[in-house]
Structures are given as C-alpha cells and as structure tokens.
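Input record, target 12 of the design panel.
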C-alpha cells in the first residue's frame, strides 16, 4: 500500500525558513513533487524532482526553495527560505510509482507565514 506522510509545517514569521519532509512507502518512486493549495486558489506545483535529481521550480519558488530527495530513504524534502505571507498554504507531497503515471498524494501539512 502506497503511503506518503508529510511533516515539518507550522507557523513562521516572514523571512523565516521551514524544512518539509515527506516519507514515501509501499513502492519505488520515480518523480516526486511538492504542491500547495492556498485558500480560494487552485493547487499548484511548487517543485519537482526526478529519480536522478533533475529539478523544476515554479517561478514563485525559484531562488528561495530547494527540493531534494534521499532515494535510500524514499524521502523528499522542501527547504523553504525567505518565506512570504503569500506562501501560506497547505503543502502536499506527491509521487509517482515506477511503471505508473498515477500520482499519489500525502495528507498535506499547513504552512502559515505571518507576523
């Protein structure tokens, strides 16, 4: 059974940092990604990473966020620096199982950027 569990969200002041983690289990995962969904907005991709480490970022994340993964632990990370109030959202990790185009999702972790 595929399962993704995020951790690391919370309340942080503008300009602060947070590290999100996502532990995936139940299979071997190829592409992994972080998405976010703010109130009243559509879910959007923040960053993605392939199994060999090729990354892509949304324009809003470039220069501030870093996605990484540890394949030996089936874990992906999102280091978020210089956080802004507009980064406030529920952040979801997502992953594709090898041999499948289906994306699996975690339950989400709340990130709130506020003074």
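The sequence produced for target 12 reads:
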């Amino acid at each position: 059974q595929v399962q993704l569990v995020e951790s690391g969200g919370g309340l942080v002041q503008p300009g602060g940092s947070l590290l999100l983690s996502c532990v995936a289990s139940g299979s071997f995962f190829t592409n992994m990604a972080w998405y976010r969904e703010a109130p009243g907005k559509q879910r959007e991709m923040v960053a993605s990473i392939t199994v060999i480490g090729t990354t892509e970022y949304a324009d809003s994340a470039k220069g501030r966020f870093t996605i990484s993964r540890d394949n030996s632990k089936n874990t992906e990370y999102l280091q978020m620096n210089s956080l802004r109030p507009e980064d406030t959202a529920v952040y979801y990790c997502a992953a594709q199982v090898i041999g499948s185009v289906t994306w699996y999702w975690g339950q989400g972790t709340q990130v709130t950027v506020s003074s």
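The longest strand covers residues 29-37.
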